[in-house]
Design a protein that fits this description.
4-stranded antiparallel sheet
């Protein structure tokens, strides 16, 4: 059984910063790609950023230059540093990871953490 647990969401003023964390635990053999997605009210879930096991990254145009994704493979944890936050960044943020567990690869999701940016 594999779990992803997020932390670090909250309420922040526009221009502020937050750091999200997501720790994977359970029967994990290896973790491949990891990522962050978000879903605002009334909108579809969208990609925010991804990071490969070797460290290459990919960002949505809307967050480039403001958000930084990183990971600590020894801790099975990924992070999302969010700077210069805008009200339009308000959403529930979900972490995601491609994990090999008991011989099979599957995508796993965290429970979501609310980020609210006030103007």
């Amino acid at each position: 059984q594999v779990q992803l647990v997020e932390s670090g969401g909250g309420l922040v003023q526009a221009g502020g910063s937050l750091r999200l964390s997501c720790k994977a635990s359970g029967s994990i053999f290896s973790i491949d790609d990891m990522g962050w997605y978000r879903q605002a009210p009334g909108k579809q879930r969208e990609l925010v950023a991804t990071i490969a096991s070797a460290g290459s990254t990919n960002y949505a145009d809307s967050v480039k230059g403001r958000f930084t994704i990183s990971r600590d493979n020894a801790k099975n944890t990924e992070y999302l540093q969010m700077n210069s936050l805008k009200p339009e960044d308000t959403a529930v943020y979900y972490c995601n990871a491609l994990i090999k567990s008991r011989g099979f690869y599957n995508y796993y999701w965290g429970q979501g953490t609310q980020v609210t940016v006030s103007s």
